[in-house]
Specification:
Layout: H1 6-14, H2 21-36, H3 40-44, E1 51-52, E2 58-62, E3 68-72, H4 75-81
Antiparallel strand pairs: 1-2, 2-3
């Protein structure tokens, strides 16, 4: 299975037009996916109370087998998610 290098992910994020609501949404979602390594369905299943954005920022992700993992968020991800 292939993967994207850091520079490739950064290029994708930079290509998003963040001046529109849908562009900002896309940027936040892709940043969250990149930061956490979560699957799309795991991010779709997040609830407001799954996020803690004050330091240290953490997201609680429920994965396969209903197992919960707590993933720290980078400062940039927490900032754009707020």
């Amino acid at each position: 299975m292939g993967y994207l290098e850091v520079a490739e992910v950064q290029a994708i994020l930079k290509a998003i037009d963040r001046h529109s609501p849908s562009g900002e949404r896309d940027y936040v979602l892709l940043s969250l996916l990149y930061n956490t390594g979560a699957r799309v369905q795991e991010v779709c299943d997040l609830r407001i109370d799954s996020l803690r954005l004050d330091a240290p920022a953490v997201v609680s992700i429920v994965g396969k087998g209903r197992k919960t993992r707590h993933v720290p968020l980078w400062a940039e991800t927490a900032r754009v998610t707020a």
